[in-house]
Structures are given as C-alpha cells and as structure tokens.
C-alpha cells in the first residue's frame, strides 16, 4: 500500500490507496508475471504496459519493495472485488462473545426461550457467556445456580462444549460455552 498526500492540505490528511496500476508505475524495468500466472521475466515498463493493454487488462504492481518491482497483468477491478469479498468474509467469521443472563428462579418457559437463543448463537459459531445473577437471599443458595448451569450444560451438549467451568464473580455465577469443533 502506498500513502500519498493530495493537494496542499496538511500532512495529516494522508489517504491510503491500493497498489500502483498502469501509468502510476514509473520505474524503468519490472519483473513481469503474465495473465496466466507464468513469469515472463524482466521487461521494460512501457513494453509491459503495452502487453497489458493488448490483452485488455491492467498492469498491477504486486510487490513494490522487490528490485525490480514485481508487476502482474490482471483485471484490477476483479482483483479489488475479490480482495474486498475476502475481507468481508473474514470480518463476518470472527466469533463474538454473547451473553445470556438468568436468575436462579427462572420459569420453565423463560429457560426454554433463553436456551433457544443460546443454541442459535452456538450454530452461528459464537461463544456464549452464561450468567446466573443472585439477588438478596438467593446468595445463600449458590448450589441452585450450579444446578441450573449443569442443566444448561446437559441441554447444550449436542451443540456446545464448556470452555470455562462455572466460577463465582461477586453476585454472579459465570460459565462460557463454545460451539463444538467441526470435525
């Protein structure tokens, strides 16, 4: 990537752009890779540009720090599209940590509702942080919270696995469930 400064603004308004393409390449000789991926060799930049235009493609500098720089004949628009598509996919696939909060005295309907949400998060490859909150005298019955987390673990064993076993965090009991690894 090359950073350039356009106009007479201050140096802080620099903008990052992609690789140099076609006439932006101003070095006398380049190492050329053809459109099929075969190495052509070291050629004059003007000759490489003529070859690219003859094929109806662009001359793109892929390794600017090499001496001489490596250029490839390719469709630059398609290259940018594929690169953006790959970046979007990588951004999406990053797993997140979701949180489901419950009380010790949760009704059966609410439990099933939160269990379905947890299953959906796990199928989307997210980790889920299960939190049981204790209020007032509920703190004296931490064993009920552990029983609830054990019930959750049993109900989710087909789709998830325990990453962090139940632990106390103040007025809360916390367990992290991760999706089962795909085999």
Structure description:
The chain has 183 residues and is α+β, with helices and mostly antiparallel strands. The chain folds into 2 domains: 88 residues, Roll (Ubiquitin-like (UB roll)), CATH 3.10.20.80; 85 residues, Translation initiation factor 3 (IF-3), C-terminal domain (Translation Initiation Factor IF3, 2-Layer Sandwich). It has 4 helices and 10 strands. It has a 4-stranded mixed sheet. Strands 7-8-10-9 form a 4-stranded mixed sheet, with helices on one face. A hairpin with a 2-residue loop joins strand 9 and strand 10. The radius of gyration is 29 Å and the shape is rod-shaped. The relative contact order is 0.10. About 3% of the residues have low confidence.
Unreliable parts: 10-15
Helicity range: 25-40%
What is the CA-atom radius of gyration, in angstroms? 29 Å
Number of helices in the DSSP assignment: 4
What structural class do helix, strand and pairing data support?
alpha+beta
**Cα-to-Cα separation, first versus last residue:** 38 Å
CATH architecture identity of the largest domain:
Roll
What number of domains?
2
What is the global morphology? rod-shaped
Mean pLDDT score: 86
Q: Look at the structure and name the CATH superfamily of the largest domain.
A: Translation initiation factor 3 (IF-3), N-terminal domain
Largest sheet geometry:
4 strands, mixed
Using the coordinates above, name the CATH class of the largest domain.
Alpha Beta
How much strand? Answer: 25-35%
> Looking at CATH, which topology of the largest domain would you report?
Ubiquitin-like (UB roll)
């Amino acid at each position: 990537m090359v950073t350039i400064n356009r106009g007479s603004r201050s140096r802080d308004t620099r903008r990052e752009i992609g690789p140099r393409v076609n006439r932006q390449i101003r070095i006398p000789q380049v190492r050329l890779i053809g459109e099929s991926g075969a190495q052509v060799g070291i050629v004059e930049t003007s000759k490489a540009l003529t070859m690219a235009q003859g094929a109806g493609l662009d001359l793109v500098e892929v390794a600017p720090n090499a001496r001489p720089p490596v250029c490839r004949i390719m469709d630059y628009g398609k290259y940018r599209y594929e690169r953006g598509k790959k970046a979007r996919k990588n951004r999406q696939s990053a797993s997140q940590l979701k949180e489901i909060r419950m009380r010790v005295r949760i009704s059966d309907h609410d439990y099933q509702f939160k269990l379905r949400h947890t299953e959906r998060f796990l199928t989307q490859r997210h980790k889920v942080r299960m939190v049981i909150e204790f209020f007032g005298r509920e703190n004296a019955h931490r064993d009920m919270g552990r029983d609830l987390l054990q019930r959750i673990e049993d109900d989710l064993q087909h789709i998830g696995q325990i990453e962090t076993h139940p632990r106390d965090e103040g007025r809360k009991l916390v367990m992290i469930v991760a999706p089962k690894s795909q085999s």
